Description:
Layout: E1 6-9, E2 16-17, H1 19-32, H2 40-43, H3 51-61, H4 68-83, E3 91-92, H5 96-105, E4 109-113, H6 118-127, E5 136-138, H7 150-160, E6 167-171, H8 174-182, E7 187-190, E8 206-208, H9 214-221
Parallel strand pairs: 1-4, 1-6, 4-5, 6-7, 7-8
Antiparallel strand pairs: 2-3
Amino acid sequence: MSPQPTILFDLDGTLADTALDLCHTMNVLLERHGRAQVPNDQVRSMLGAGARKIMERAFANTGSPAPPALLDQLFDEFLEHYSSHIADHTVLFPSVREQLETLSSAGNHLAVCTNKPEHLTHRLLEALNVAHFFPVVIGGDTLPVRKPDPRHLLEAITRAGGSATAAVMVGDSAPDIESARAASIPSICVTFGYTNQAPDTLGADVLIDHFDMLPEALSSLLPGHFGRQGTRLT
């Protein structure tokens, strides 16, 4: 028998639009440390790669770069504030819930692979009422490695009971696509996420502009497992 497919999802910028809450936290810390807040039309370009990187970009954008010791402090302050405001404005992207319900009900393995700290990932998934879809969650601090290290994805597949020969990574940025490539897993890149690179330059196997396009993308990448509309083949 062929293994059940495993679909791996990034979180921020892929499943959920977390930008407003991340940006609010960033601006709170900028103001706290005597910097000007970043206008809303500029903040999305600073997202991605974790809290430390967000604050590194924010300080460089508003004056002199923050030294490493301050970045360590900012990282801790960021997590403390963000954890209390993790879903004030965050929402799932359109059709995410419907696609997760379809994939889950068909018996596929689902997992979250994110560089967000694991405890915050669980908290956000619970707040968005989608935690039950993901029996496996690998956060940025779950393992000694994180994306783009392929072991981040491969461990998720192992814990889900799947196989790398029947897996797909869905993400929005270079670490997602690079980790999939290193693990010899096909990848799908959403075009509406958080990345400083144009999505079509990241090297994903398929680009999708909306989660309604996910079934067709899965069919093209795992034709032996999914029908033309992305439904599981019996």
